[in-house]
Amino acid sequence: MDSPSSANRQRRNGCRIVLFPLPFQGHINPMIQLAKILHSRGFSISIFHTRYNFPDPSNYPHFTFHLLSDGLSELEASTLDTLRLVKLLIANCVEPFEQCLAQILSPDDLICRVVCVVSDAMWYFTQAAADKFKIPRIVLRTSSVCSFLAFCALPLLRERYLSYMDSKMEAAVLELPPIKVKDIPRLETHDGEDMYRAIENMVRETKKASGLVFNTFQELEEPELAKLQEQFLMPTFTIGPFHKRFSAASTSLFTQDRSSISWLDAQAPGSVLYVSFGSIAAMDQQKMNEMAWGLADSMQPFLWVVRPGLVRDSEWLAMLPDEFLEATHDRGYIVKWAPQQEVLSHPAVGGFWTHSGWNSTLESICEGVPMICSPFFGDQMVNSRYVNDIWRIGIRLEKGLERGEIRDAVRRLMVERDGEEMRQRVMCLKEKAGFCLNSGGSSYEALDALVDFISSFTF
Ligand code: UDX
């Protein structure tokens, strides 16, 4: 699929790109996939990475890794409060990033002729460093365009809707249909105000970038892309879905339990609901119980990723009521972490109950698996609204985690006609995602354009 001509390869020989992922699973996966894509097009790759979640370089023999000292204490690095971690990392990485960039750009550094920096959008301070060294910066926004538009509008939305956010949760947000007031990405933690500022900085600094890359495809978010281009005037490249070019398996931060695949092998086609809420989401014990009993009451087989830490302050499996484990032992299978892409492509899987992280959403679309959505925060609120209202390939749980609603949604998705229609629609999107990566498809062409764009920096 991605086979560049040898002439192009030669032309790009010696051109190095620096990539700098935000060090969380949902951000590392797409950035490393992008690195692999660009490497396959002839560029040399340097990865700048924090000590926090530093990957094993032996998994990437073709890349050069640079360790950034992120200044996190052991205690800070072990917190499960992701917003707090992001805030600390942003504050601590400004200088190490600049120093590392200065070093790699120095004439004494023999490995490179760095042509540009690709940074996660949240690393907004990298724009100033790139400007200082007069090197182009391309931003990778790892989530959907629709959720990015909501982040761009956040100051306005807070001003207009904040006063009644809690009393009119179902009201429409007129500026961004189909979003409702309850879908506005809120950051109501003790670090909330700092994070709102960080989002504003992210948007402002993204506007200064030379280019913008999204892990999505044109056919999925066409109207949203048109809106984006009214605000962001630089070239924008939608070259996703990345994981269909290079899988995310090598970037997994947790060990993937392959027994889930053998268990699926013994299940009937389309019968299993796969349940996973990604790498960050956490809940309290009461919500976990509702989840468990909703699943039990649905009477459907399920494969459930119960990640350690999914329930705050609870040991693994102590999170689940004994009666639930007894009631479902013949039709449920529980693991700490699964090979998700492989699970979703397994013929036994007929639905995905997800937190609507963007990687999970795209992976589900690409395998033609309809969803139940339980968003927790940030982009998940908007992604799930689009799954339910715009693409109509899933059911968003509107009451949070409530046993009766869960039971009904699982049955609707897995055995009722409604679910079958969602399955047909998501199969259409799967087909479109496949086409867009083939020769002449939108993402294929956009990748060629991105490669030309980056190559133009060298002349
Ligand atoms: C975070 C944010 O929470 C999310 O909203 C944002 O879109 C990206 O960053 P995360 O919550 O981890 O990500 O979710 P998601 O984007 O879905 O990424 C999870 C990744 O982990 C996926 O690539 C998925 O395939 C992988 N995964 C998940 C596994 O490999 N095994 C599992 O058991 C669960």
From TrEMBL:
Protein name stated in the entry: UDP-glycosyltransferase 76C4-like
Family classification: Belongs to the UDP-glycosyltransferase family.
UniProt xrefs under InterPro entries: UDP_glucos_trans
Keywords on record: Transferase
Source organism of the structure: Sesamum indicum (Oriental sesame)
SUPFAM superfamilies from the UniProt entry: UDP-Glycosyltransferase/glycogen phosphorylase (SSF53756)
Chain coiled-coil ranges: none
Gene Ontology MF annotations: quercetin 3-O-glucosyltransferase activity; quercetin 7-O-glucosyltransferase activity
Alphabetized Pfam families for the sequence: UDPGT
Gene it is expressed from: LOC105167102
